[in-house]
Design goal:
- The complex is a heterodimer of chains A (195) and B (127).
- By secondary structure, chain A is an all-alpha fold.
- Chain A has two domains: 19-106, no CATH class; 124-195, Winged helix-like DNA-binding domain superfamily/Winged helix DNA-binding domain (Arc Repressor Mutant, subunit A).
- Chain A has helices at residues 3-13, 24-43, 46-64, 69-100, 129-142, 146-157, 162-169, 173-190.
- The radius of gyration of chain A is 18 Å and the shape is globular.
- Chain A starts with a helix and ends in a 5-residue tail after the last helix.
- Chain B is mainly α.
- Chain B has five helices and no strands.
- Chain B has helices at residues 3-21, 25-71, 84-93, 105-109, 111-126.
- Chain B is rod-shaped.
- The chains are: A mainly alpha (195), B mainly alpha (127).
- The A-B interface holds A 3-5, 7-8, 11-12, 24-25, 28-29, 32-34, 36-37, 46, 50, 53-54, 57-58, 60-62, 65, 121-122, 124-125, 130-131, 133-134, 137, 156-157, 159, 184, 187-188, 191, 195 and B 1, 4-5, 7-24, 26-28, 30-32, 34-35, 37-39, 41-42, 45.
Chain lengths: 195, 127
């Protein structure tokens, strides 16, 4: 049994409700790696993902540490989501500025791809078969529209319930269901061969 | 939701969870450091918050004290180096008869004569 199937089995046997750690330190320790992977999924860049996670942790501790522990999970994902959106917007503005300065077209006048920061960090995803499968899922998830991607990552990958997902996304529960349904439709098409 | 969707969800979630455990040591160390920084910043933020609240209060108190000092009536200039109260009493005493210690001692020695003079002054004038 490989590691992926081990996690898969563990996930099936695990209880649905997970206890929230009592201290903020323990809570962040349980979230930091997942938050990094989540931010990386949305931003496609390790350094930006690190910045987003660091900022989200700082904001949660600064502004919401007095909140009950049960509220930390949706609050944290909500903060991280907004930080991700901010970084994506900033990246878009940078692309526009580069375009204005004449850097948006090559010598033949063709439009260059949207500016993306260089990602020179280690990428262990390409080393093993399971990692390749995750890379396929990640690529398919990145192709989803923003809100569908948020609904899929929070509801399916993170396992938040509909109400928590709606709180983190800042929308109604009905919208979460709609976005998730469309996301699943897109992923079925993109991951047909992978399944 | 059909069974193939359920299977897709479970597989994607399993891959995601496995990926979260497979973070390289450098990134994991940076995440731990980020967590410590966030928690330390929160503990240090409390005095800063207090300072942010106390600073305007202190400034307001200083302004109030300064205003009080400016509006307090200034003491009148003193006369001949004497305190203001003593000078006022002396000014009032100028209109009163002199005290026993300051009066001419001859006045007391011839007091009977002056009394007789005062009593008979009117009758002598009539003569």
């Amino acid at each position: 049994m490989n590691s992926v199937s081990a996690v898969f089995e563990a996930e099936l046997l695990a209880p649905q409700g997970q206890a929230v750690p009592a201290t903020l330190d323990a809570f962040l320790a349980s979230m930091e790696r997942r938050a990094f992977r989540m931010a990386e999924l949305h931003l496609g860049n390790r350094e930006d993902a690190m910045d987003a996670v660091q900022d989200a942790m700082l904001r949660l501790v600064k502004h919401y540490r007095s909140k009950p522990a049960e509220e930390w999970t949706p609050l944290f994902w909500g903060i991280l989501r907004r930080r991700i959106v901010d970084l994506q917007r900033r990246r878009k503005v940078r692309s526009i500025v580069v375009g204005w300065l004449g850097g948006g077209h090559d010598d033949d006048g063709d439009e260059l791809p949207v500016w993306e920061p260089a990602d020179s960090g280690p990428d262990p995803l390409e080393k093993l078969h399971g990692e390749q499968s995750y890379a396929d899922v990640a690529a398919a998830v990145r192709r989803l529209p923003q809100r569908q991607r948020e609904a899929f990552t929070l509801r399916v990958l993170e396992g938040l319930d509909v109400a928590e997902t709606a709180h983190a996304m800042g929308c109604s529960e009905g919208s979460v269901k709609t976005h998730l349904s469309r996301a699943m439709q897109h992923l079925r098409e993109h991951l047909e061969a992978w399944r | 939701m059909n069974s193939s969707d359920k299977q897709l969800e479970q597989r994607a979630r399993a891959l995601y969870q496995e990926a979260t455990q497979r973070i390289d040591p450098v990134t994991a160390g940076r995440l731990r450091a980020a967590r410590r920084t966030a928690l330390e910043a929160a503990t240090h933020s409390t005095p800063h918050h207090r300072a942010r609240v106390l600073l305007p209060v202190g400034a307001l108190a200083a302004v109030a004290l300064a205003a009080l000092m400016i509006w307090q009536p200034a003491p009148r200039p003193q006369q001949d180096g004497k305190p203001q109260g003593v000078a006022a009493v002396e000014q009032e005493n100028e209109y009163l008869p002199p005290g026993a210690d300051k009066a001419d001692p001859g006045l007391y020695q011839n007091l009977d004569f002056y009394s007789w003079l005062a009593a008979n002054d009117g009758s002598q004038v009539k003569r």
